[in-house]
Design a protein that fits this description.
Strand content of chain A: 15-25%
CATH topology of the largest domain in chain A: Phosphoribosyl-aminoimidazole Synthetase, Chain A, domain 2
Shape of chain A: globular
Number of strands of chain A: 14
Structural class of chain A: alpha+beta
Radius of gyration of chain A: 22 Å
CATH class of the largest domain in chain A: Alpha Beta
CATH superfamily of the largest domain in chain A: PurM-like C-terminal domain
Oligomer: homodimer
CATH architecture of the largest domain in chain A: Alpha-Beta Complex
Order of helices and strands of chain A: HHEEEEHEHEEEHHEHEHEHEEE
Largest interface: A-B, 79 and 80 residues
Helix content of chain A: 25-40%
Strand order of the largest sheet of chain A: 9-11-8-12-10-13-14
Number of helices of chain A: 9
Chain lengths: 356, 356
């Protein structure tokens, strides 16, 4: 009888009602082709992912697609801890892939989900993760239509890893690529930086912060749709995940062969996030977000772009810089509050591992 | 200086030419958003997956899709050992997903690949796996257009896990589903059973078999295309992966509410595979294949179906049974060589973990 069960006030009996085939944790056979694997599908995955009437097939799903170009993307999620203020691995796995489609100017048609479970992983925790994914998908207006589960031996995994892939339809007329950047384009961010990395980091053993910082983890596809629907000529989009604002802009600058200029005084950063970064010696420009992106738009369209973002729920949209001039290899320059200039580079090591 | 390097006769020098950013094994920063992650993409993934001119984007890929319904599928691959007679994790990861699309009557448009790497994993082995994936994709006429890499700490993984997802276009007119099964349909298999599971199992430490058995691991999409092109009215398809012939047919019978009858004397099984199964006490009907499938077709179309499969390179296509009658809950019955009948059931445990 687990402590959890007593706490939940469940009736005493020979088997926990949350168990699958009598197992309260994952066993190797949950990943086989037999009865336990079937029971796991029927007890945990189907009820969550078919709530909207979609059938999760084993070999694959078939669906009608509107004409026009498709976007396709994938990400694996290995974040630790699994649950953190403002989100969890399930929300990340769904919204992260929806956001990657949005960065291609695409709205999601369907998602897949692949689980790698470690023998001994709690069935109750798996249910919680799966239900969070289902809720996140509902919120983003997309279905998880196909999936897969593998089980690895104890010590060959870390509870649960999730891969999602997404297929989306590119919004008519959208043509989004670093190659479309032009000198004079404005760089607009949809909200404050570095929340997600700090939210996850400060939940790890060894950190004791009084006030939890919420992750910025969010579905931004509605914000992208709003920009495009407002007729903004979006040249490029990039979500500020691994590597944060700096690494992502350096990559875009390199791809475009252009110099980008950022104004430090314009960068949105919450006081409490800045304080933790200073305490830990982290540069917030390199800390990952999971619900923040930059849009490159013609300078003349900044006011309507900010209005569109605000109208779609972006927390604090703001212009943070501009595309200045051609520059072979690309360059990102930060103009500091006191007028000095700093060249931003790719980070050489990794500041914060397993934050997504 | 590694032994491998000396053996390969490479020139002496401060750094192995197969290293990435000076590292001959995966380090945590290869999974970050910084310079090492970029170097891993440029040294290992892009050269393999862009050989055909396709650009692997970071956030996602965009491609034109012909009109008509799409199929979408995903699988994670955790097989051990990574390399086995007749295949490796890379081939499985590509062909397994191509085959799942084929089982929907779809030909592949694009694949994604997500890697979960364990800190300390050999860069040379990763290159070998990635090159095998690229070769398998070329052979199947599909590109890996988008991907992702995560790195987990030593002891939180097992070298490499791969997830692939695939998008395909359903062949015009194909309508493939257990619901389309009809009494009188013939069950046709494309080749001999149980090779893959036995090939992998007998490579594990502790087994010493003189003659290696080759996995049946293969791309079967050409065989499915041949069936459809020959005008065969294919009612359902199922590849015989986890759980083997028996578990997959039990699942189909249940989905269709029909009784299936198999003739033991018709089941194709290589002598050496039968011998190993007998020695180890394994039932070959439950051992997984990775290049074998069954097709449910009208009885009158068996000869042209077998001819189409043979023409497309199926190793030994044969009719193995038939759909007999309605049966609530479904049933699969095996008629033995001496005329007895055996009811096949779902396996309750797992015979062979991590064979895919």
């Amino acid at each position: 009888m687990s402590a959890e069960r007593g706490q939940a006030g469940l009736p005493e009996g020979p088997q926990c009602p949350l168990a699958v085939g009598g197992h309260e944790v994952i066993v190797m056979a949950h990943g086989g082709g037999g009865r336990l694997a079937r029971q796991l599908l029927e007890a945990v995955f189907f009820p969550a992912f078919e709530a909207d009437g979609t059938r999760v097939h084993h070999d694959g799903a078939v669906f009608a697609a509107p004409p026009g170009p498709l976007a396709f993307t994938t990400d694996s999620y290995v974040v630790r801890p699994l649950f953190f203020p403002g989100g969890d691995i399930g929300k990340l796995a769904v919204w992260g892939t929806v956001n990657d489609l949005a960065m291609c100017g695409a709205l999601p048609l369907a998602l897949s989900a692949g689980f790698i479970l470690e023998e001994g992983f709690s069935m109750a925790t798996l249910r919680r993760v799966v239900q969070s994914m289902a809720a996140a998908a509902r919120q983003a207006g997309v279905s998880i239509v196909t999936g897969d589960t593998k089980v690895v031996e104890r010590g060959c995994g870390d509870g649960v890893y999730i891969n999602t892939a997404g297929v989306g339809r590119v919004v008519a007329g959208a043509d989004i690529s670093p190659r479309r950047l032009q000198p004079g384009d404005a760089i607009v961010a949809n909200g404050d930086l570095a929340r997600h990395g700090i939210a996850v980091l400060t939940q790890r053993p060894g950190f004791e912060f009084e006030n939890a910082i919420d992750s910025d983890c969010a579905d931004v596809s509605g914000q992208v749709r709003a920009l495009l629907a407002a007729g903004i000529e979006v040249h490029c989009l990039r979500d500020l995940t691994r590597g944060g604002l700096a690494a992502n802009l350096v990559e875009i600058a390199a791809g475009a062969g252009l110099r980008l200029r950022l104004e430090e005084s314009a960068l949105p950063l919450a006081d409490e996030v800045a304080a933790v970064c200073e305490l830990l010696g982290l540069d917030p420009l390199y800390v990952a977000c999971e619900g923040r992106f930059v849009a490159f738009v013609p300078a003349a369209q900044v006011p309507p772009a900010l209005a569109a973002l605000r109208g779609a729920g972006a927390p604090c949209p703001v212009m943070i810089g501009e595309v200045s001039a051609a520059c072979p290899g690309g360059q990102v320059i930060l103009r500091s509050r006191i007028g000095g200039e700093r060249l931003l580079d790719m980070p050489s090591g990794e500041q914060l591992p397993r934050i997504c």
